[in-house]
């Protein structure tokens, strides 16, 4: 980066510049009061004062500057490491970058020193002299990047060890995401959660690919089911029996669900049969998590007119929840179709919640693109 005719030092460039609003405020202050603090230069490059130099350049002023002698890296860290505008995750990420760059510099210095020692030893050998330190030494290989422990990063960056560990993990798994955190463009925990979600989804997709089929169906991590409930004496019993063969609760509970070890179940239930639906969730090895309400605007019932149905959500194993941007609202208004048919919007919603993961629809009435279907009415 070049500002006001000066190159900036790479240590300074690891810290973000002021945003437009704060930069404008700084420029206004310098215009009114003059440049109170000089910029600091190391070997002609700006160590401290990039924002002041930029403000002076915009005002047509030549920035005042003073030289610095010493370790430029630790100087820059001492000046900027505790800036209030840095989040803990960002501070840890920047400190890790500092340690990386310092390690590279030390490695270069080590290689140069070893080379010089080797050349001196060879020169003495060529002159017939004796080596005094036990014989010639093989040049040592350039050292690997200096080992960094989370505790050391945490102490330098003044963050928790857990934060330092998360930053180091993100650097290893997602260098671009790590760079965004260091620049202040993303939050450490959010980026790392997305990385872990992606990793877990890949693992679960592999489960589905390698799982042993149940009958002719290969298990999937996303199961969508609308069982043919028997209503007994409740409203709607005759209507259901007229449309399709229903199943006793015990038979539904006894079904072998085509689900992977880590899976999500979306189970349709009506309000009168909510207790039965919870028994099915338990029998299939899932744990209830929440529900989506289908507001269908009209209905039947003995106690109240049930104008809604419930899409229950349950999980088993270790499967991450949807990304925040893919989480639907808990109430969806959609028109009714044929008897017991569910609006397509719910299947589309599930696809958005878990993109890329294999899906199976139990008791399906028709084929669905990209899904496995299971049911005696599926085409």
Explain this structure.
- Strands 10-8-9-7-6-11-12 form a seven-stranded mixed β-sheet. A five-stranded mixed β-sheet has the order 1-2-4-3-5.
- A hairpin with a 2-residue loop joins strand 3 (39-42) and strand 4.
- By secondary structure, it is of the alpha/beta class.
- The chain has 13 helices and twelve strands.
- The model is unreliable at 129-147 and 234-238 (pLDDT under 50).
- The chain has helices at residues 10-13, 20-33, 50-59, 72-80, 88-126, 150-157, 161-173, 175-182, 188-210, 237-243, 249-254, 274-283, 344-353; strands spanning 2-3, 6-8, 39-42, 45-48, 65-67, 220-225, 259-269, 287-300, 306-316, 331-333, 359-362, 372-374.
- It starts with a strand and ends in a 5-residue tail after the last strand.
Portion of residues in beta strands equals 15-25%
Overall helicity: 40-55%
Terminus-to-terminus distance: 63 Å
Q: What is the mean pLDDT?
A: 88
Cα radius of gyration in angstroms: 33 Å
Main sheet characteristics:
7 strands, mixed
Strands ordered across the widest β-sheet: 10-8-9-7-6-11-12
Look at the helices and sheets and give the structural class: alpha/beta
| Shape by Cα distribution | elongated
Number of strands: 12
**Count of helical regions:** 13
